[in-house]
Amino acid sequence: MDHTNATTSLSDWGVSMDMHGGRRSPAARAKVDRIWKACEEDRDIEALVQLATSENGLVDDEVRQKAWPILLGHTPPLKCKDSLDRAAWTDLPRHKDEDQVRLDVDRSFIYYPKNETEPGLDRRKKELSAVITQVLRTYPMLSYFQGFHDIVQVFLLVLGVEDAAASVSRLSLLRIRDFMLPSLSPSLAHLRLLPTILQAEDAKLCQHLSKTQPFFALAATLTLYAHDIQEYGDIARLFDFLLAHGAVVSVYLFAVIILSRREELFDIPADEPEMLHSVLSKLPKPLDLEALIAKTMSVYGRSPPERLPFRAWAKISPYSVLKTTRGDFRRQTIDDGIALFDRQVSQVRREQRIDEAKATLWKYRRPAGRVGLAIFVGVVAFSLRKGGFETYAALALRRLWETLGPIGRR
Questions:
Q1: Would you state the pLDDT for residue 1?
Q2: Which run of H or of E encompasses 10?
Q3: Largest CA distance in the chain
Q4: Residue 200: left (phi > 0), alpha (psi -120 to 50), or beta?
Q5: Which alpha helices (H) appear in 160-307, and where do they start and end?
Q6: CA distances from 119 to 50, 83, 109, 201, 234 (A)
Q7: How far apart are CA 240 and CA 298, in angstroms?
């Protein structure tokens, strides 16, 4: 595997380690020994998580090749359904998003590897396209999103073209599934946690940002920060941390980045949400990753999801990766991911039907009257039941009646 110029910096340890036998410092060697032991001898996930979270993470790519698949829930050599047939996928039908994949791959590898030759860059782009296309054709229900290629190129550089697809498949179905659904609404649910984390940690700052919608965090959280971080060593180290923890930790990390910019943000008037959005949509440079990671864990421990205000956590879908990657989630299989995907899609469709019905009733609220409203609500409930949404019929009725309740009092 060629990792030329894709070197993980360990500046704090006074050493860099590449894939060609570069020296490790005594501190790095001692940590690597503990990582190997956790991976091979003890299969101690808790120890591996702690090591991936601690300063300098998993040290270098040689270690990551062993540890990342374990953090994702499998161990190479890949077996059974975790393995993708590298020969057969090319015969599968084209995925609907392959044209967009091609456009995004053409603008990949902008920041790293550095000093890459033109032929070398072309080769990497072909490999990246192959990995993404293999995953999408094998699991055609997945919807590609712009920025997915930023994530996959990191996996490609670390794991190599032979092993990247299996890990990216598990990542897609089990860790970032919310971002690969046919609707954006599950992704936006991640962003809606941001104000509640800020409220729990710094109510004054949260109030200052209250006129600014949290869409500024979409690009970073959607791509696990790979779209914004330009140094290979930094993004590889951050992936050590993110893969070691549940999906919600990525949201906490962004909240901590906001908290770290408190003084800068208070210099911008609260009644200038466009300016605040512009500032918040760009990560500060340089990023002190180790400090941010340490503070993220502190905030997460102090204000865990279940204790966030406004019942924010209760509003998250039970099928969202925010909830399904908590606890012993590494035992989940690809089939589990597909089943959760299907349940999320069904839930999103139910909610869309309810919202559409509410919008329709609101549009015709004035001429409806009590009798017309009752008939219309009954028709909507019947259509929901006919469409296989029996368990949500009562919920639909309640939501619809709440929406137009005042009509009957006019």
A1: 45
A2: strand 8-10
A3: 81
A4: alpha
A5: 161-170, 185-191, 193-201, 203-208, 218-222, 232-244, 248-260, 262-266, 273-280, 289-302
A6: 40, 29, 13, 50, 26
A7: 18
Q: In the structure encoding, which two tokens stand for residue 211, read together?
A: 């006129």
Tens of pLDDT, residue by residue over 124-140, are 999 999 999 999 999 99
Q: Angle of helix 248-260 relative to helix 232-244, nearest 10 degrees?
A: 130
Contact 180, 142 (CB under 8 A): yes
CB of 138 within 8 A of CB of 169? yes
Mean pLDDT of 48-57: 97
H or E element that contains 16:
strand 15-17
Give the count of beta carbons closer than 10 Å to the beta carbon of residue 111: 11
| Pair 26, 32: CB distance under 8 Å | no
For 291-332, give the DSSP string. HHHHHHHHHHHHS-GGG-GGGTGGGS-TTSHHHHTSSSGGG-
Q: How many other β-carbons are positioned within 10 Å of the β-carbon of residue 75?
A: 14
Of the listed ranges 4-8, 224-228, 283-287, the one predicted with least confidence: 4-8
Whether 232 and 289 have beta carbons less than 8 Å apart is answered as: no
Highest mean pLDDT out of 324-328, 381-385, 400-404 = 324-328
